Amino acid sequence: MKRFILILFVFISEYSLVQANRVVYPWRACPAIVLVGQTIDILYDNTTDMPVDSVILEGPYNRMVLSVDSVRKGWFEYDTFTKAVVNNKIRITIPEGTPEELYDLIIKSNGETNISKRSVKVLKTYRNPHRFIHISDPHVSRQWVGSPENGYAKELELLDRFIEVANIIHPEYIIVTGDIIHDYTRFDADSLGWGGTVRSGFKNPPLAEEKYKNFFEGAHGFSGAYGFDAPVFSIPGNHDFYGPKADDFPAKAAQWNRLMGKRTYGFSYLDTRIIASDDYLGDPRIDIPDKAPLSGLQGILLESFLNTAGPGKIRILAQHRHNRVDTAFINRHKINVVLNGHSHRPREALVGTTPTLSIRPGAVCRSGEIANWKKTLGFFRVFTIDGDTFTYSKPLRFCKNPTAAYEELIMNLTLNFKKSNMGESTSNEALISNGFDVDLPNCNVRFVMAKGKYKISEGVVYQIIETSKFSVLDVRVDVEALSNKKIKITRQF
After folding, report:
1. Do the strands 101-109 and 112-123 form a parallel or antiparallel pair, or are they unpaired?
2. 69 and 140 share a domain?
3. What pairing do the DSSP bridges indicate for beta strands 470-479 and 440-450?
4. 82-96 residues labelled b (16+ CB within 10 A) or e (exposed)
5. Which residues contact 471 (CB under 8 A, 6 or more apart)?
6. Residue 103 in contact with residue 94, Cβ under 8 Å?
7. Do 263 and 361 belong to one domain?
């Protein structure tokens, strides 16, 4: 018994270097999309068993203090492989009048504050058609610039600029199919991203916590995934751990739980069902077997989600590995699209009897791809879902020269304001330049203006947020391929 306690203590001390966020859902891997008037259940690890004082949604221009409908206490398991649990489910309702925004979720309990950043997307209504962006394999922190303690992930230089492009396109959500971080760190890499010194392990910074922090929060002035104006849904890849041995599946999966939350989950957007699997961190026998991958624990969970949510009109499976598709599962549930990563070169194929589109986008960030950049680097795809049909773009490269230095990158989609857009002006002009050879409907422009009533020259004002100092107008406008669109805004009174 003493030996077991000692082993457990060592496991906890190694794998709990930083206390996990008490908010497990919605959180990093799996945020929430919720309509005004709907309820959501927050998974909250209230280990101190203190009363929940308040739940708050905080956006850049508004703050909503919510009523707590109920707090259920119990044993709520969210990972069937690691048996990870929380002891509270907090039910809240999004009140009428809440602006459409991607919010921080803040929970206060007995003087303690827990924040789940950019984790709740509030909508007034679902959009049909709607769009999402698929990216994969950012490998943030494979290359490290500066000292281990005070450096940053080289990949952020490209991710930061891609975020600018994605926010103009303004999808409803973003799906990242794995290899978010990297299981080793390369210092002083050569011009092609190789060479230098390679380190890994618990005692070799940057640690796993810092790698995930770089991906989400950015570093050194570069934005991370929290810079996206859409909720980002993530799944693990084969490189998404740091410290545990490659065959220590419980440790790798537990590290994901501690730093990301859910590994396997489903969510809906209107009549679209998206299921997210982990085909690398869990063990190859009971969680996701080598043969018939979704016949294990994850398959049971995903099947349960589809049975509960209903089949909807379009079904999408996100996984990392491109060359191992469970055709029995996708045929049984008539999966329309399998989103893959792992191989960094864009590709598409048909599999199964539905038939199912199996597709991958390429790699959006610098990750040792410099030698093959013409075929792999800087790519993403845009999917459009309209009822029971879907279309998708060819691989789009967000900049013309992804191997260039950060300040020399030439973007294929830009948004520029003639005047400051910080709430000081009573008139302004925005110019969107679309260098892609595809049309981009419903591009987003947020004007932050001095208080007043305003008129725009192009597009549609779909939301106005009034603060004590500013009038914030969200405008959607269509921009044709290889063209510019100018939007003027003027105060009427």
Report:
1. antiparallel
2. no
3. antiparallel
4. bebebebbbebebee
5. 449, 450, 451, 452, 453, 454, 464, 465
6. no
7. yes
Alpha-carbon dihedral angle through residues 347, 211, 289, 339, given to the nearest 10 degrees: -30
Q: Tokens 């499976």, residue?
A: 317
- CATH code at 67? 2.60.40
Beta bridge partners of 363: 377
Q: Which two tokens stand for residue 20?
A: 């996990």
| Cα–chain center distance at 488 | 32
Residue 61 shares a structural domain with residue 206: no
| Block mean pLDDT (10 aa), the chain, length 493 | 32 41 95 98 89 95 95 96 97 96 95 94 97 98 94 97 98 98 96 93 89 97 98 98 95 97 98 97 96 96 97 98 96 98 97 97 93 96 98 98 97 98 97 98 98 98 96 98 98 90
Q: Could you give the number of structural domains in the chain? A: 3
Instruction: State whether 372 and 393 are in the same domain.
Output: yes
The CATH number linked to 455 is 2.60.40.1180
* Structural contact between residues 266 and 318, judged by C-beta atoms closer than 8 angstroms: no
CB 277 within 8 A of CB 300: no
Do residues 279 and 273 make contact, with C-beta atoms less than 8 angstroms apart? Answer: no
Is 0.85 surpassed by the pTM of this model? yes
The set of residues, in sequence order, having a beta carbon less than 8 Å from that of 52 and lying 6+ positions away, is: 44, 46, 68, 71, 88, 90, 107, 108, 109
Q: Tell me the residue range of the domain where 20 lies.
A: 2-123
Residue in 34, 7, 237, 224 with CA at minimum distance from that of residue 119: 34
Q: Are residues 101 and 201 in the same domain?
A: no
